[in-house]
Amino acid sequence: LSTSLPLKVLVRTDDISEESPPGSGHVAFSLQSKQLASMAIGFSDVFVLQSSSSNLFQFRDRILEGLSYPGPALFSVFSGASGNASGLPPYLTAAAAMESRAFPAFAYDPAAGSDWASRYSLADNPQAELDWPVQPFAYEDETHQRIAGDVAFTLVDFLACDRRYASHFARVPREKWNGTLAPVLECVAGETRGMPDRVPCLLMVDRDNVLQKVVADDQLVREARRCREMWHSMQELGGINNSHALQLLARERKVWQEQLQRQAETRARETNSAAPAAASASLAPQAPVAAAAPAEPPQEKSSDAAYIETPRCTSCDECTKLNSRMFAYDANKQATIANPDAGTYLQLVEAAESCQVSIIHPGKPRNPNEPGLEELLKRAELFL
User: Strand 120-121 and strand 17-18: pairing?
Assistant: First the structure.
């Protein structure tokens, strides 16, 4: 790769759960493949594509770009054919690896531009803006009632598919299902700190298609946190939740708010200076008039409720494209929140982040059980 010759190299990985380096005390996920891909990107002129085999068809355009690239290209692919996936087909194992961020997909194309924003992309990962993808899940309980909700697919869920990690899990009898069982997502996010009685668990389906709850040990939770931090680093490179951009946005918003405050203070001074002249004019004889009812002071928007500064809307269509039931235009084609319950808190936060004039305020979540709320609340702080 360092010769800059137009070589095309394919590296196939069958098993990403490699033996840990001596003394590390944790699992090494495709360590060699990741080191190779990082090294290739370091050359700056090497086309790099990493993907699971389950998504190669979706990446066909990027594969053609790599094959036609005039310089060297590296294709790193996880096949899923480890033979330890408890009967799952290799393509499902490969898909689960990408879904759980154990083997994320990315592309680095030196020909796409001169900066990282042009060259590096994570867009092909499922729900790349989140820590873990969230999917709807429905089942029938013992009373034959339909239960539905959203479930995050974490690294712990991926490891539960590997028979080699069976000793890290234990099934919980149905009569023991109680409030001490906390979703793995909450434990990985640290939302159960200070509550030692909460035990991380995940949902699994047995061979009889019966839903089970399974607890995971602390080692797997630590591995999931480490995996999440690595994913955060990749998000930074891919321009997703970039800390530099968020800090700049916060500074610009603070300056804007200070300008609004100064303008309000200026208007207040002008109003007060005009008050004596108005009082003098009021001394002139006037026809009697009925006493007017005192005007009600304008109600301040609550930070708990989501709202839009509608008069400042530029009609950019960003929010209405995101969720046309939650966001709608009024008679002046300016956005309002038509129904805050018609979508998720995630969509409110995404709409606030994508608004070109920063007029969408997501407020507080209406559904306390929505996954990933801790991270979403941090993102929403900039727009309260």
Answer: unpaired
265 in Cβ contact with 273 (< 8 Å): no
DSSP one-letter code for 209: S
Cβ(314)–Cβ(357) below 8 Å: yes
Helix (H) and strand (E) counts in the chain: 11, 17
Q: What backbone torsions phi and psi does residue 14 show, to the nearest 5 degrees?
A: -95, -30
108-147 in b/e form (b: 16+ CB < 10 A) is: bbbeeeeeeeebbbbebbbebbbbbbbeeeeeeeeeeeee
User: Which of 200, 180, 181, 178 is closest to 190 using CA atoms?
Assistant: 200
Tell me: pLDDT of 126 over 90. yes
- Asked whether residue 198 carries a pLDDT value surpassing 80, the answer given is yes
Pairing of strands 17-18, 134-140: unpaired
Cα distance between residue 370 and residue 280, in whole Å: 60
Q: Measuring CA to CA, which residue among 8, 15, 122 is closest to residue 75? A: 8
Query: Would you tell me how many other CB atoms lie within 10 Å of the CB of residue 176?
Result: 11
55 close to 105: Cβ distance less than 8 angstroms:
yes
Q: Is 225 exposed, middle or buried (0-12, 13-18, 19+ CB in 10 A)?
A: middle
Identify the CA nearest to 149 among candidates 229, 211, 234, 237.
Answer: 211
Q: Tokens standing for 259?
A: 């300008």
pTM of the entire predicted model: 0.62
pLDDT in tens, 155-174: 999 999 998 889 999 999 99
What does the alpha-carbon distance between residue 222 and residue 84 come to, in Å, rounded to a whole number? Answer: 22
Torsion of CA 83, 85, 153, 123, to 10 degrees: 20
What is the predicted pLDDT for the residue at 286? 55
Q: From 349, 370, 382, 375, select the one nearest 190 (Cα to Cα).
A: 375
Q: What would the pLDDT profile of 248-278 be if each residue is shown by its tens digit?
A: 777 787 788 888 888 888 888 887 776 665 5
CA distance 257 to 249: 12
Tell me how far apart the alpha carbons of residues 104 and 83 are, in angstroms, rounded to a whole number.
20
